[in-house]
Amino acid sequence: MDIAFLLFEGMTALDAVGPYEILQRVPGSNVRFVAKERGEQRAEDNSLGLVADYSFKDDVPAEVLLVPGGLATRQLVNDEETLEWIRQMDQKSEWTTAVCTGSLLLAATGLLKGREATTHWLEMEMLGELGAKPVEERVVHDGKFVTGAGVTAGIDMAITLVALMHDDFVAQALQLAVEYDPQPPFASGSPRTARRELVDLVREMAASRSLHSATRL
Amino acid sequence: MDIAFLLFEGMTALDAVGPYEILQRVPGSNVRFVAKERGEQRAEDNSLGLVADYSFKDDVPAEVLLVPGGLATRQLVNDEETLEWIRQMDQKSEWTTAVCTGSLLLAATGLLKGREATTHWLEMEMLGELGAKPVEERVVHDGKFVTGAGVTAGIDMAITLVALMHDDFVAQALQLAVEYDPQPPFASGSPRTARRELVDLVREMAASRSLHSATRL
User: Fold this and answer.
1) Contact B66, B90 (CB under 8 A)
2) ipTM, 2 decimals?
3) Ramachandran bin of B100, using left for φ above 0, alpha for ψ from -120 to 50, beta for the remaining angles
4) What's the pTM value of the predicted model, to 2 decimals?
5) Neighboring chain A residues of B61 at a CB cutoff of 8 Å
6) Chain centroid to CA A51: how far?
């Protein structure tokens, strides 16, 4: 199975690497990282580079497409070259997926028009403005589109996707292989469970930076 | 705060990128990726490259050191150059941490002798053979050493580490920023919860490949 990950300068690395670590283990999978230009793409804090072996010019096969998020989505929702590449990939994909603010990018293509989807909790309103129907769930599945909430939700999204594509047994075996038995030390991973002052703090810090800086403090 | 991540050919990318996505968000943090030689390091399935901006020859500052795991740890536990670099970094670190089979590498340096530590569930025995006291917990903290279980446990480890280094408030804010509100679709992330046939399958597939292939199906 051919799986294509979009990479770009200013991405959130974990949005891509979380699902990658599940999907690369699917027996028979063939993962390719693709960016506008081949080569290193720096993540949003600039300390880490991820390498794309393929560019938009390559005819990359994709039964699965994954679009990560990141600070750069603020610009990329207006970047027709990237949006058109996503539309072209979606024409050949069986599953088109996104994580975090990658859902905004996917919505900006028009492909999520009227479809249920999710994104980072700070960006739900923007997702609606871009034409999708925002659903406050960790993983949302509508037709061929599977979306995950903020950053770490990509892992849950990918395990759900494997179960949809194959069966529960393969998905469970992969979950065990990566020992995904999460035990967060606090119950503050969602605005529903976090203390109000934490929600206000993260919201303020995001607002003071930029509209799409939801994923950075 | 200076944070150094070891990278190497044949690593498990998520072992590093999970904690990175927490630690790079700590206000004032300065993350550096270091490898034997500067440049691209391919992850264990060879589809993804992560870039190290620094080499062992650079005098990289590190209040925190993080050692990821991966298939290549099988060789690296006998690689004196890598072991000596870890020992040198540990001399200046306040916290020395490892994820998954990175704990085997850390144990091979001798630094975990007699100390409690954890690793991937398939490698607990090996961790003991390398001189540590294996503890079947997701995150183990003994003195300055903090270790995480398999692959995805790096996220729990990093949030725990932030709470140890700073306070619960910062750790909780970061957890909310990356929306770490895990909702695995199955309860099969641990040999304690997974069906017996899944545990046997993952164990057999690991054994049939190599001793340290625990993290790949």
Assistant:
1) no
2) 0.95
3) left
4) 0.95
5) none
6) 17
